[in-house]
Amino acid sequence: MKSLILFSCFFFFGIASLFSQHVVGVKAGPNLAFLDYEKNNAALLWHAGIFAHFGIGSNFFIQPEILYNVKGSDLDKLVVNPITLGFKFEYLSMPLMFGFKFSDRFTIMAGPEMSKLVRSTIFFNEVKSHENFGIRDVDLAINAGASFIISDQFGLDLRYSHGLIQAVDITFTDINGQNLGGTGERKNRVFQASIFYGFEFGEK
């Protein structure tokens, strides 16, 4: 975990050192998270972190971020009733967004996100467990969204994150080893809204 934190800092500040002028800031907000197609079992979770914004020419930019990012789903009925499962995955996420500025108030962006699992919680029939069985340690996603600048320092990010690899795959068996069903290979899906505060840093 320490090596991951060091890598995250290198990722963030290493990119920052390439630019003499940029914007740095903080962001936070809700996540509407679910696993694959189970949108009716979406969970209201959250994220918070830091970002840097670097202009490339007059309209393009790059925006690395480091987020504490909570994903998962609410209780999800499985094949075997009345078993229910809910998931909360706490990640250290590193989105790297590439964007285009349409105006001083509106931008669009897209890019990859790599996440490392920090802690997981499984709600098995509403009983909590922190076992990582069937849960992947690393998550990869592609993100896309838009930003709206409210004032010189405040703004709103709206984003969708589409997981590319399975986050969880749990199978239940009986005492004879017969398959009773399970989650299947589920991937993270997240709708994310952020309020951000940024300030200019470096040479003008």
Write the topology of this structure:
Elements (H helix, E strand, L loop, with lengths): L1 H15 L4 E15 L7 E14 L3 E18 L6 E18 L4 E19 L2 E3 L8 E12 L4 E10 L7 E3 L5 E4 L5 E15 L2
List keywords for this structure.
single chain; 204 residues; mainly beta; 8-stranded antiparallel β-barrel; two-stranded antiparallel sheet; 1 helix; 11 strands; elongated
Please provide a written account of the structure.
The chain is mainly beta. It has one helix and eleven strands. It has an eight-stranded antiparallel β-barrel with strand order 1-2-3-4-5-7-8-11. It is elongated. The protein starts with a helix and ends with a strand.
Low-pLDDT residue spans = none
- First-last Cα distance: 37 Å
Mean pLDDT: 84
How much β-strand is present in the residues?
Answer: over 45%
What does the oligomeric state look like here? single chain
Structural class: mainly beta
Instruction: Please state how the strands of the largest beta sheet are arranged side by side.
Output: 1-2-3-4-5-7-8-11
Q: Name the helix and strand elements from N-terminus to C-terminus, one letter apiece.
A: HEEEEEEEEEEE
Helix coverage percent = under 10%
Number of strands: 11
What's the helix count? 1
How would you summarize what this structure contains?
This protein is 7% helix and 64% strand.
